[in-house]
Amino acid sequence: MDQLKLTSTNLRTFPDFLRNQYRLSYLDLSGNQIHGEVPNWIWRLNLLEDLNISGNSLDSITVVSKDMEMFLLVKILTIFTAINFLCNKFSGQIPAEVGGFKSLYILNLSNNAFTGAIPPSLSNMQKLESSDLSVNSLNEQIPAEFAKLTLLSFLNLSNNQLVGRISHSTQFSTFPKSSFEGNKDLLGPPLTTDDIAAVFSPQPMSNGRRFPNSGHDQIIGML
């Protein structure tokens, strides 16, 4: 078995039988009631590339632990291509280590409770094509290093607490204003004066959580 989809099946914990599914490359556990921490053994599934745990009640995750073998750490950072943690209860700062996922092309951390600055290390993910960090409580300025992500075609930073001026880089000029709305102290094109003053109204989701109607589909397709 190399692909497994257990969506909306009322799971409350990670199924224990997954521990030994070393051939899995795709795992979708979205839309369940799984709570607590993402177990460390999930990273020991040697072929796992795409992980979707969106729409649960997870609140913590440890990617790097003190007892993790170096070869396993290298595997995690070089093989994963898509991560979707949409609509959970993750909080605190986004770990700088996330920037070590060199092969990642989809990163969705929207609709959580992340705080603090966006790690500049995310600019190290040179293969990143889609990044959704919307509907959190991220603050400070958008890292100028994001302009280095030349393959990035979708960016959603809306509904946070970001401040300062949006980069004038060629890369950032390709994103619509919906990518930045809902940050009242964020300035510069593509936002207008009216956009800056307005509070972007989120739309309700069927599960009671909310996310912005950005004009883009949420990126969960590969996960």
From TrEMBL:
Its main location: membrane. It comes from the Eukaryota. InterPro entries: Leu-rich_rpt, LRR_dom_sf. It is found in: Cell membrane. Belongs to the RLP family. The keyword Isomerase does not apply. GO terms for cellular component: plasma membrane. Keywords: Cell membrane, Glycoprotein, Leucine-rich repeat, Membrane, Receptor, Repeat, Signal, Transmembrane, Transmembrane helix. The keyword Chloroplast does not apply. It is a single-pass type I membrane protein. Pfam families: LRR_8 (PF13855). This is PREDICTED: receptor.
